[in-house]
Amino acid sequence: xxxxxxxxxxxxxxxxxxxxxxxxxxxxxxxxxxxxxxxxxxxxxxxxxxxxxxxxxxxxxxxxxxxxxxxxxxxxxxxxxxxxxxxxxxxxxxxxxxxxxxxxxxxxxxxxxxxxxxxxxxxxxxxxxxx
Length: 131
Hints:
Number of helices: 5
Number of domains: 1
Order of helices and strands: HHHHH
């Protein structure tokens, strides 16, 4: 299936980039552990952070798809869902950092996969010709 028009947001491509960045982060953490540059505790933290980042994007995507499927009107329900998702994310990150026992650097690296995925998609789109 071809790419969407350049002016439309391609959530499938963005999802793929987020999974790619999570895989790259986990592979990099594995290489760092294998080379002895990091402790083994880095990997579970990176996996947990990447899982939270991917779950967060999944929820963002579902909320946005529901919000804009009704003709482009944004309702109060959208705002409430988005705020609750954000507060839930803050709560999960707090609980993981406070009580999870994961390596904090690994967790933050995994959590950054959402940002890196969006960045990869933006860079990829910047090289597309404007038609």
